[in-house]
Amino acid sequence: MRTFRGVGLGGVGLSLLLSACVGSVEAPRVSPVPAPIDRDTRPTEPVRVRPSRDTGASPNIRGIQSPARIVGAVPLLPAPTVPAVAPVNAAAAGVLPGPSFASLPIDDAQAQAALAAFVTSCPSLVRRTDTSGLTRGTDWQPACTAAVSTNRRDARTFFAQWFETAQIGDGKAFATGYYEPEIAGSLERRDGYAPIYGRPTDLIDVDLGAFSTSLKGKKIRGRVDRSNLVPYYDRTAIEQGALSGKAPILAWARDPVELFFLQIQGSGRLRLPDGEILRIGYATQNGRDYTGIGALMKSRGLLQPGQTSMQGIVAWLHAHPAEGQAIMRENKSFVFFRELEGAPLGALGLPVTGQVSAAADVKFVPLGAPVFLSLDRQDASGLWVAQDTGGAIKGSNRFDTFWGAGAAAEATAGGMAGRGTAYLLLPIGTVARLNQANGARYGGPSAQP
User: Fold this and answer.
1) What is the DSSP letter of 440?
2) Would you state the pLDDT for residue 80?
3) pTM for the structure as a whole
4) How far apart are the C-alpha atoms of 424 and 98, rounded to whole Å?
5) CA 2/CA 17 separation, integer angstroms
6) Rounded Cα–Cα distance for residues 329 and 257 (Å)
7) Minimum mean pLDDT range among 4-13, 35-44, 96-105, 138-147
8) Cβ-contact 76, 420 below 8 angstroms
């Protein structure tokens, strides 16, 4: 998850909360000639940042002006495929060549922002083992070397020169959104406030692969009870005081519902009574399975049409405090935080950028790779860089887009449910090499121009 999106939650994002209910959100129609979108997410009132706790980075984390995403009204259609059965990674799902980069509706500002994020990701791309089965570290080295010396004004030319597009599996994309929330809190305990815990001293991480090769890659968390390793305390036990003396309290949140959502986001900003900001981020999680309360509420008929956004769920929880607490406790997963110095970080340990960074499943997308999304949501269509992961972001062509901080980012992320087509940007020659080695998975080139 992120370090921001949740290093253990993966991309603990808003999609985690709404993973089973966002599909009912009707995406707005895109006009044939869309107008630029003003995405200024800066707070509307001054923010005094605690010098020892925050670097003063603005919501536009990397100092790059976030581009307006302007694309055509109709998403590109994926090439027809014969889908694989439960593919374990992108190589098994099948890879088809996509359209040329030059044919994609990407403006200069988008390309420049993506290039900056790609340069930041390059050291990880060339070093990490790509579990998607698509690339090797050496595949990225030429593009990464060229990217460092590329003038930002030549970003579109750079991507066209060094990358080809590829459709993974059926290419049908689904994108949700997440953001960096800001909630009210205090460093001192106050009546009605909920504690924000750091990592408990008795929480144990277990790498099962160390015990059996058949369990390689599998991990669990728990605690020791006498001579037994048992599951760690769930949300209900923690809220009822199970962590007394076992975990540091970093601060106190004024609203338990807001804290619940901050846990889902995995990172956020705590506005203190004097106006100063304390930034906190994901440290770890209790090892319990995540349950999206949005799906529960929808299945029980608690949410009316139009209420399935994050904002609608929050309003219901506030209006029904007792029932809301019980529903939130059905999500046994609980997130522990740490104090952050500077900008929020993604799963690569690198800063994430609003309207540029996205979370993806590393089994289907090389972490750090660019991806083009052609969706029925104008604001989410365009060029992104996969710099994060998420607990609910699983499978091919599943993405969680990051929108930064502030009210505009919250509004966009809270209702994001875009569908369309995804094309990965891979080093030129990758698709031919894969299909030559394994045989064309679906037979025949992409139908796209």
Assistant:
1) -
2) 64
3) 0.68
4) 9
5) 16
6) 11
7) 35-44
8) yes
Q: Give me 176's structure tokens.
A: 């949700």
Encode burial over 316-329: b for 16+ CB neighbours within 10 A, e otherwise. Answer: bbeeeeeebeebbb
Residue whose tokens read 């319990």:
288
DSSP 74: S
d(CA 10, CA 309): 22
Q: For 204-246, how does the pLDDT look when each residue is reduced to its tens digit (9 = 90+)? A: 999 999 999 999 888 999 999 999 999 999 999 999 999 999 9
Classify residue 204 by its DSSP letter: E
DSSP strand pairing (276-285 vs 48-49): parallel
Contacts 24+ apart (CB under 8 A), 204-207: 204/229, 205/284
Between CA 39 and CA 67 the distance in angstroms is 8
* pLDDT tens readout for residues 284-309: 999 999 998 998 999 999 988 777 77
Tell me which residue of 170, 51, 163 sits closest to 114, measured CA to CA. 163
Q: Cα separation of 407 and 267, whole Å?
A: 16
The secondary structure element, H or E, covering residue 426 is strand 418-427
* Euclidean distance between CA atoms 84 and 170, whole angstroms: 9
- Catalogue all structural domains in the chain, each as residue range(s) with its CATH number: 14-29+42-178+343-438 (2.40.40.10)
- Find where tokens 């809190």 sit: 185
pLDDT in tens, 402-420: 999 888 998 898 889 999 9
* Backbone CA torsion sign across 116, 122, 125, 128: negative
Question: Between vectors from CA 214 to CA 209 and to CA 217, what angle results, nearest 5°?
Answer: 40
Which residues partner with 424 through β-bridges? 166, 371
What's the rounded Cα separation, in Å, for the pair 94 and 441?
A: 5
The residue to which tokens 């922002």 are assigned: 113
pLDDT of residue 172: 95
Residues in the chain: 449
pLDDT digits (tens, 9 = 90+) for 23-46: 222 333 233 323 222 323 323 333
Question: What is the overall mean pLDDT for the chain?
Answer: 82
- The three-state secondary structure class of 43 is coil
Q: Which residue has the tokens 């707070």?
A: 43
Give the CA diameter of the chain.
66
